[in-house]
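Obj.: predict assembly geometry.
Materials: sequence records (below).
Method: joint structure prediction, all chains together.
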Amino acid sequence: MQTTEEMSLTDLGEFGLIGRIRERFPAPEGVTGIGDDCAVIPQRSGRDTLVSTDMLIEGTHFLRRDIPPYRLGWKSAAVNISDIAAMGGLPTATFLSVALPADLETGWMEEFLRGYADISRRFGVALLGGDTTASPDRICLNVAVLGECPSGAARLRSAARDGDLVCVTGCLGDSAGGLKAILEDVERDADVQALIDRHYLPLPRVAEGLRLAATPGVHAMMDISDGIGSDLKHILEASSPLQDKSSGLPPESPLPGATIDVPSLPLSPALQRVCARLGWDAAALATGGGEDYELLFTCTPEAERSLDVPHTVIGVIRDLPGIEWRGAKGPVAGFDHFRKL
Amino acid sequence: MQTTEEMSLTDLGEFGLIGRIRERFPAPEGVTGIGDDCAVIPQRSGRDTLVSTDMLIEGTHFLRRDIPPYRLGWKSAAVNISDIAAMGGLPTATFLSVALPADLETGWMEEFLRGYADISRRFGVALLGGDTTASPDRICLNVAVLGECPSGAARLRSAARDGDLVCVTGCLGDSAGGLKAILEDVERDADVQALIDRHYLPLPRVAEGLRLAATPGVHAMMDISDGIGSDLKHILEASSPLQDKSSGLPPESPLPGATIDVPSLPLSPALQRVCARLGWDAAALATGGGEDYELLFTCTPEAERSLDVPHTVIGVIRDLPGIEWRGAKGPVAGFDHFRKL
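Observations (raw C-alpha cells):
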C-alpha cells in the first residue's frame, strides 16, 4: 500500500485505476459489472438492462472555443448511445448531469440541448433525468445511458475465441484525422470538413449492433473509442482465460492474441486524400486515433460469410499472446486519458 | 429567445434551467422523467426501474482540503441512494464517474473508494460501472444510481393532496449546522462533531422509504437535499393541478399550499445545544439548510396514525397557495446552487 500511495494517477494510468476499482467492487452473481462497455443487469422479464456512463470535462475532452455547443451536445449523447450499440442493445434513455460556470450565457446551453435532442430523437432515446449544478470555471458533463437486450444476448468483450476473425464496421481514423486538423488548424476543404464532422457528429452503430448481436457466431464486441490499438487489447485481455476467475480452474490455453493486417484497415477516401495531401500517416490515425465509434467485433469465419452488416475483416484471433501489426510502419498505441496528459 | 440568450445561468437559476430542459425532452407515455428524485421506468416484469444521478464538483460542492476523501466517497454514494429512498425504492446499483487531476496521489482515491464501498455494502448496493478520466485541475464526480420498486409503488412529488399532513423522518438542520461549524471553524466538542458527522456521513432512509411506500395513504415523498423551504415548494409545484398537463382539463382547485409549524420542526439535542451556545438560529438551519437526507412526505391523517416509521408531523397541505411558516422569526429560503454563487 505504501508504494501505491506514493504513486500519482499518471503512474497508475486509467486502466490501472479501473482495475483497482474492480477489485474492490466485485459484481454480484449473474451481473456483468465494471470492465465492459456497459453493465448487464438481468431482469425478471427475460430482458437484460444495459447501463453505461461517460464524463466529459472541459480542458480534457474539449475546448470551449473549439467545439460549437450543438456539436458537444450531439457528441455527449452519441458516445453513450454507442456504448449500448457496442453490446448489441437498444438504447432507451439517458440521464444528463451538467456543471456550468455561472457566467455561461444561456444560449450556449440551448444549443447544447438542441444537439443533444437531435441525436436522441434520431435514435428514439428519451432524456429522463439528470442534474444541473454550478461549476467554478470549467464545464463538466456526465451522461448515463440505459438500454436493453434479450436475456443473454449482450456481446461482451470477453467472448473472443481462437480462430475468430477480427472485423470492424465503417472506416477508421476519420475522427482522429478531424481532431488533428482542428489542432493543427488545417485549411478546411470539403475533405477536411468531412473528417471534422466525423469527429464532432459521430453516428453510433445501433442498427448494426442489434443485427450483429442477433447473429450466432458473433462473439466479442465493443465500440472503438480509444483506437483499435488500445481497444483490441481490451478484448484480448477480457477474453484471456486468466480473467475467468469464476471457474477457479487453471487456464487451459495461453493468453489470446491477434494478427492485424494494417494495409486492410478500412480508410475513407476523404482521409486518404487528406493524408496524401498533408503527408499524414493514415494507418497511424486508423490504429492509434480514437473516437471512431465504429464497432470492433470478432466472429467465426462462417458467421462472417453470412453477415448482412457492412464490415471489413482486418485480422484474426490467434493462440499466441500479443498483437502482431502486419504491415505497420511503426509502433501502434492507443489512447489513455491519464498517460496522455 | 433573444432575451434568454442574453441571460446568464445565474439569472435563470438551477430550477429555471431544469424547466427548460424538461420542455425540450418530454417523457414518453407511462414514464416519469425529469422533475422528481428519480425517473420511473416501467418494466415488463411488473417492477419499475428507478434511476437518478448527481454531480459533485470540487469548489462548488466540496473543498478538497476540508473533506477527507473517505467521507466524500461515502457522501457521493449516500446522496444517490437517498434519491432511491425518496421514491420508496430499493437501491440496487451505482455507476461512478470520476475526473481526477493527474497529480492527485493514489491514496486519495483509495480512501474515497473505501468510503464509497462502506456505505454501498451497508445498503447492499453494487458498483457496476462508471468512467475514470483526467481533469485539468478540479475533482469532478458523478454517480448514477439504479433502484427498483413494485409497479406503480414509487412515491412521486406530485401526489400531495389537500388536507394531507406534512411529515419528516429524523431531525432537521444537523447537516447545515455541521457545515456552518466547518465554514466558521468552530471548536469541535462532541456536539459539533456529531453535526459535522451528519453533514459528511448521511444515512439515507432506505428502510423508512420502503415502509412508507408500502403504506396506503402516504402520498407525495422526497428527500431533503436543499432544505424543506425549497423542497416543500417542489412538492407543492409538482402537485399543482396546473402541472397535470396529461388530463387536458382546467384545474379544479387552486395551487396547493402548506402551513408549517416552525416550533414543531424536529431538532436534535446536539443541534439545540450548539445553537444555544453559539447563538445560532436552529429553526433557520432546519428550514433553510439542506443535505439532511431525511424523508419529507405527505399523508392522510389516518395513514399517519398507523405509521410504524418514526416521524414528526410538521404541518398540513391546504387549499391556499404559498407556504405559511407559522412561528418563523424571519424569511425562509432554500438552496439553489446557481443563485448561491
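Conclusions so far: Residues 1-7, 243-251, 334-341 of chain B have pLDDT under 50 and may be disordered.
To do: check interface contacts against the pulldown list.
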